[in-house]
Amino acid sequence: MTQISVSNAGVEFGATRIFQGITFTIGEGERWAILGRNGTGKTTLFRLITGSQQPTEGAITRQPGLRLALLEQHRDFGGAETVWEAGAGEFADLLALERSLADQANVLAGVGEAATPQMLARYDRDLERFDREGGYTFAPRVDAVLQGLGFDAEKARTQPLEQLSGGERGRLGLARQLVSAADVLLLDEPTNHLDLETTRWLEDYLRNTQKTVLLISHDRAFLANVVDHVLHLEGGSAVAYSGGYESFVLQRAERRLSQERASEKQRKVIAEEEDYIRRNIAGQNSKQAKGRRKRLSRLPRISGPTSEEGSSMGLRLDLSERGGDQVAIARDVTLAVEGRTLIKGFTATIQRGDVVGFVGPNGSGKSTFLRALVGDREPAAGELRIGGSVRPSYYRQDMAQVPVDRALYDIISELRPRWERRQVQGHLARFGFSGDEAQRRAETLSGGERARVALAMMVLTRANFLVLDEPTNHLDIESVEGLEDALEEYEGTILLVSHDRAMLEALTTRVWILHDQRVTDFPGSFAEWEEQSREREHAAAVASAEQESLRRVKERKTTRRREVQGDDSRIALRELRRKVEDSEKEVAALESKVAELTAILEDPELYTTREGTERSLVTGKELDRVRRKLDAAIEIWTAATERAEQVSAT
Fold first, then answer.
1. Mean pLDDT, residues 450-463 taken together
2. Among 140, 404, 495, 642, who pairs with 551 as Cys (CB 3.0-4.6 Å)?
């Protein structure tokens, strides 16, 4: 069933045309990637689809009653005060009702048999509404999404919203969108604030959701694992492709080759016609020549493959000198921020030619380590230094190395004072800033433009050690591919913090994994690390499934009416309550065992030896066995609880 139809849509702002002639349809449950260089109109297209902006030409048709949710850059959480309330979003009314039921249950338990019919009737009425409107399912869903995106679901219930950082607010905005009742999710760079683990979780979530998904992303591995359709914006219009991202890459290459051949063939025909016209326009065949000239003027030209300004950066990374064999040395390094230890007792050496991928959860200390390595901060203990004859170049995640108060021309000219004007302008042009763009001040640049300036500056350092902190943030796919190609040809040493799995898989020769204040040095590529640690993903999936089951248990316990036990002789009820208590203890014990086994499998050190890998397989099987026992225990608890409630009500 078609949910959204875009027909010959175009948008203009004054004399500037963003795009034109875009036509495609979106069916229920499809997952579309909206791709294209920065500035081609991807976010504008999202606004057209939601109806917040109207096309200059063409039409956008939506299925009647269709609900859409757009993840925007500026997060508005309404009147929410806690993290959980903000994540719950439109379910705030049910959240208030859940609190009311818990309060009523406590009051009823306190007054016992003195409870009035009105009190009991209100409780029963509210409980029936809570159940009817999905009260037992919405809270576990919110918890599961918050947990999947890196929040502590229990802590989120009371954690003030104002305590969150910008990145955490970004993840919370995504959580709010995922749990909404919308039919269509429009996700604009959803992985920007996610680490590798939460990105994998989001992939699984989007693959399994019944909702329709449209997403803008530059994460190639994420796209390859999620989408089944692609809309590629280029050359002022767009082409729709069926199939996943990898299929799109092949189809695009074939289409460009075919377009190039057709354009070249037509060019030859036009050249022959123009030659005939020149030779005969004034001779006896003048009439035929004029006729050909008229037909030639009306001939639609076949353009070659689009070559947009700045579409491929002139990125080549050269060295000024070879440098020493020991590029960076860490000896028993401990890093701390505001009294919180991030990394403890880390020892390692980066050798010349290494490409080290540094991965770990957001906020765990990776960027802090890079800053300490280049001398921007001191470690709390140990020795951390760069080797002799090593010239580092540090690409900061916040791109603070780009002076915002200067023109681009001045920034490059200060790095190369002997260059002539044409050389400075030529260098900027290779990074997409030609003509008058060279006089723009850096403070006016978008995130993607500032990233290109940072790369233009890095090229001029001719460093033999690149320290890169999330260099693909803000870059479009074409620019990411250009950067990856340049790094692949680079002959120096690289320390790379990134969540771009495709780049990590293509480049790394070693991997550092930061987990619980410890850094594991894995002597292999990122692809080998992922293969070695497949049991870690298995453990995470099991833990996620069990967390949702356990949250359902807790929801029923929270809203369950608790009655005072009198001195009556209701033996059956007492037996049922005893069974409920025993079941709760069994569930708690098995939950603890699942957490213990999961923690073992999550330890990166386990996968650095053959014995550890074999142990992970055994532990994974044990985790499956305990999980099945826990599922059975939860079913027993649920049945006993429902039976006790029935007996209690009689």
1. 93
2. 140
What is each CA distance from 552 to 106, 336, 548, 579, in whole angstroms?
20, 38, 6, 18
Element (H, E) at 3: strand 2-13
When pLDDT is cut at 50, 70 and 90, the band that residue 230 belongs to is very high
In what helix (H) or strand (E) does residue 520 lie, and over which residues does it extend? strand 518-522
Please list, in sequence order, all residues whose beta carbon lies within 8 angstroms of the beta carbon of residue 97, skipping any fewer than 6 positions away.
126, 129, 130, 135
pTM over 0.90: no
Query: In whole angstroms, how far apart are CA 500 and each of 191, 508, 524?
Result: 10, 12, 17
According to the model, what pLDDT value does residue 13 have? 86
Which residues contact residue 621 at a Cβ distance below 8 angstroms, ignoring those fewer than 6 apart?
A: none
Instruction: Please list the residues that pair with 131 across neighbouring strands.
Output: none
- The average pLDDT across 155-159 equals 89
HEC letters along 336-378: EECCEEEEEEEEEEEECCCEEEEECCCCCCHHHHHHHHCCCCC
Whole-angstrom distance, CA of residue 495 vs CA of residue 186: 34
**98: amino acid identity, one letter:** E
The number of beta carbons lying within 10 Å of the beta carbon of residue 438 is 21
Task: Give the chain's largest Cα–Cα span.
Answer: 123
How far is the C-alpha of 343 from the C-alpha of 368, rounded, in Å?
A: 9
Q: Which of 217-226, 471-480, 560-569 has the highest mean pLDDT?
A: 217-226
- Using pLDDT thresholds of 50, 70 and 90, give the confidence band for residue 573: low
Percentage of the chain surpassing pLDDT 70? 90
Q: Rounded to whole angstroms, how far apart are CA atoms 175 and 162?
A: 17
d(CA 135, CA 94): 6
DSSP lists the bridge partners of residue 334 as: 381
Distance (Å, whole) CA 458 – CA 391: 12
First to last CA, the chain: 49
Which tokens go with 570?
A: 């209701």
CA distance 558 to 124: 15
Q: Which residues contact 112 (CB under 8 A, 6 or more apart)?
A: 563, 564, 566
Tokens of 251: 């189809």
3-state SS class at 420: coil
CA-CA distance, 23 to 1, in Å (whole number)? 17
Residue 607 vs residues 57, 533, 601: alpha-carbon distances, Å: 57, 6, 9
The pLDDT confidence band at residue 34, using thresholds 50, 70 and 90, is: very high
* Cα-Cα-Cα-Cα dihedral sign, residues 49, 53, 55, 60: positive
Task: Give the model confidence (pLDDT) of 278-327 as tens digits.
Answer: 888 777 678 787 777 877 777 766 666 554 433 456 688 999 898 899 99
Q: Which residues partner with 234 through β-bridges?
A: 237
Report the residue count for the chain.
Answer: 650
3-state secondary structure of 288: helix
How many C-alpha atoms does 602 have within 13 Å on its Cβ side?
18
Q: What is the pLDDT of residues 525-545, one digit of tens each?
A: 998 888 877 766 666 666 666
